[in-house]
Amino acid sequence: MQQNIYWPRLAYLQKSASTAPLAVFRILFGLLIGVSMIRFALHGWIDMLYIQPLFHFSFYGFSFIKPLGQATYLIFGLCLLSSLMVTLGWYYRWAALSLFLSFTYIELMDQATYLNHYYFISLMALLMTVLPAGRYFSVDVFRKPEKACSRMPAWCLHAPLLLVFILYFYAGLAKLNSDWLLHALPLKIWLPARNDMPLIGQAFNLPWIPYLFSWFGCFYDLTIVFFLLYKKTRVGAYLTVVVFHGLTAILFPIGMFPYIMMVTALLFFPASFHHQLLDKLSKALSLSPARLHTDHSYRFPLHHQKWILTLVGTFFIFQLLFPFRYGLYPNELFWSEEGYRFSWRVMLMEKAGQVQFTVQDSHHAPERVINSAFLTPLQEKMMATQPDLILQFAHYLRDFYTKKGFTAPKVYADTYVSLNGRLGQTLIDPSTDLARETDSFQPKSWILPFKDEIKGL
Predict the structure, then answer these.
(1) Residue 211 and residue 175 in contact, taking contact as beta carbons nearer than 8 Å
(2) For the residues 358-386, what does the mean pLDDT come to?
(3) Based on CB atoms within 10 Å of each CB, which residue in 2, 327, 355, 394 is the most buried?
(4) pLDDT per residue over 32-91, tens digit each?
(5) Distance from CA of residue 426 to its chain's centroid?
(6) C-alpha to C-alpha distance for 214 and 198, rounded to whole angstroms
């Protein structure tokens, strides 16, 4: 076995694992993203979400990423092609990189469409660009058998498992708050609204059901990875994954995420399980089983080891620390949402609100803005409760009215927002001229304090 010349004392880096689990994951992961791209096209969401809107909300620091008009279809087409090439393991490295770039571009085109599971897919796709997932059961190795490897460094299997652990465990930590555990919010609002579901719908009217779902959801997130790691509980834990995410898919419209997690959980099963799946797939495709067997082990080139391990280590240090950045802000997290995104806080709040903008200058009477003249219903809904989106739209209005002849227009926002069923409160200081404020990572003084307390992490 080739010795690691950079970290010779770390025996862990010398351990190896089968490449079969990563190959199975590659196939299913690529397929699901491909299906997601097809769904977007068939439902007309590409046009509705990215082409029709007059304005798009950018992520801070990524304002240069915008939809490309009708060419936006090409980005989705590239993502679809890349996902299929990843599934096949055809020019795998380039396909994985293309998948990461195209999917992440789609994710960043409009902040109003942000979902945690998009972020997870981008991170997993990025991780897959450095993992040897194309070295087993792929078009690449069928074309060039000398590339086939049945073993790889063990960390290549453990890295995606660690990412799954962070997602689940941090989501569980986020549920350790008074609204979720003590008041069953927001499930107390959401579940009764689904009481028309066949068979189980009436149960959602029972007052204790939201508490049961809340406490089980917290327990599930905090412990599911440990149960999947333990051999004696693995099968039962996976069935729980299927039931939990299956029910989530039925109750809440969150796209392909439940199925992505069902597929990802298969990584916890032993190599023998994945070999059986690949053997069955080989027979179904009339492929020679002999091509699956090789004695070669994948090793990163010596001159690549140091920077690959450094980058992967930095990636995970960032993922472990970044979700806690909310502690740097004085406002209630659910209220201000400063540090909320990209922190695995999944379905923790129900916010509803409305915002009325007024634009004025020294030469024109104050003019009230009709938001729907500029925004789609989804954009207007998401913007009304998120301060940074309100600020972005205020800047858009400033520029729009400047072109209309206003001189240094001032933009004020009259906001009314309800969090988890509470009475509505004013979110933005109505006396603040948002046209003069700038976005940054600094705390925003123009966000008014939350008139309540949510205890917990």
Answers:
(1) no
(2) 93
(3) 394
(4) 999 999 999 999 999 999 999 999 999 999 999 999 999 999 999 999 999 999 999 999
(5) 29
(6) 22
